[in-house]
Amino acid sequence: MLVHANAKINLTLNITGKLENGYHTLDMIMQSVTLADDVYVEAAEGDRVTLSIDKDGIPTDEKNTAYKAALVFLREAGLKRAVTINIKKNIPSQAGLAGGSADAAAVFVALNKLCGDIFTTEKLCEMSREVGSDVPFCIIGGTCRAEGTGTTLKKLDDMPRCRILICKPDINVSTPVAYRLCDEFGVDVERRNSENIINGIKINNLYTISSNLYNKFEEVLDLSEVRRIKDIMLLYGAMGALMSGSGPTVYGIFESDDLTSLEMCRTRLEEGYSQVYAAEPASSGCVIE
């Protein structure tokens, strides 16, 4: 079974507090996009999970979220199966686009379908929290508000049609460092970016959405490459631009009928960056083909 595992971007990401166990509480609006990994899943008689990936440097054992997803599913289902997973990576790794979480979500969805839809979507999301905080969203997909530790999800109406240009610079970002800096800066629970974007979605106003993009991590990390990419995107006609997740990937939102501006921006970015992708909003996280 082939599943297209869609990446995610953050329209908003705000840190609203810190729990006694060290986890942070968040307020995010997350959006699936059509940049996707191709995840092939098969289940047969046996009891071994096998994972292969077409990119070097990515673990193919219990350290991989897709591998973990298979183990959790089989355990919760009380089943023994020989599960074979093959992933064709299109989503950049360690990019703030939830590529690993998307792959795990695809495994949950595929195995559930192969085993006769034995779990509801709600149960799959509950199970998937053990694998990663972004996995439940990647199962549901579309446009969602995420609160709590990021796993309390509320499905929203679809984002208006638009084009999204995605660019990952060749730098690394430490998520623990990003959280530590957020702790030093302090929380800002009064921000209304999420509410404003939800209103923009309700009235189908892309300008309202684009003008309320916000990412606390981008603010505290203050990365020069992120600023440079945003400047290029805005110069070439993006309605708004933002770093996604803990970065370093940046995306820009373009009007759906403004293909010329997007392509000019894409050409300009490709002069300095090797990972540039055009996408659109997706209404689901996983698409079974």
Q: Could you characterize what this model shows?
A:
- Helices cover 34% and strands 30% of the residues.
- With 289 residues, the chain is α+β, with helices and mostly antiparallel strands.
- The protein folds into two domains: 2-157, Ribosomal Protein S5, domain 2; 162-279, GHMP kinase, C-terminal domain (Alpha-Beta Plaits, 2-Layer Sandwich).
- Strand 3 (49-53), helix 1 (65-77) and strand 4 (82-88) form a beta-alpha-beta unit.
- The N and C termini lie close together (7 Å).
- The mean pLDDT is 96.
Structural features:
289 residues, alpha+beta, Ribosomal Protein S5, domain 2, Alpha-Beta Plaits, eight-stranded mixed β-sheet, four-stranded antiparallel β-sheet, 10 helices, 12 strands, 34% helix, globular
- What gap, in angstroms, lies between the N and C termini? 7 Å
Q: Oligomeric state of the chains?
A: single chain
Do you know the CATH topology of the largest domain?
Ribosomal Protein S5, domain 2
The rough form would be described as globular
* Cα-atom radius of gyration: 19 Å
Q: Poorly predicted ranges (pLDDT <50, ≥5 residues)? A: none
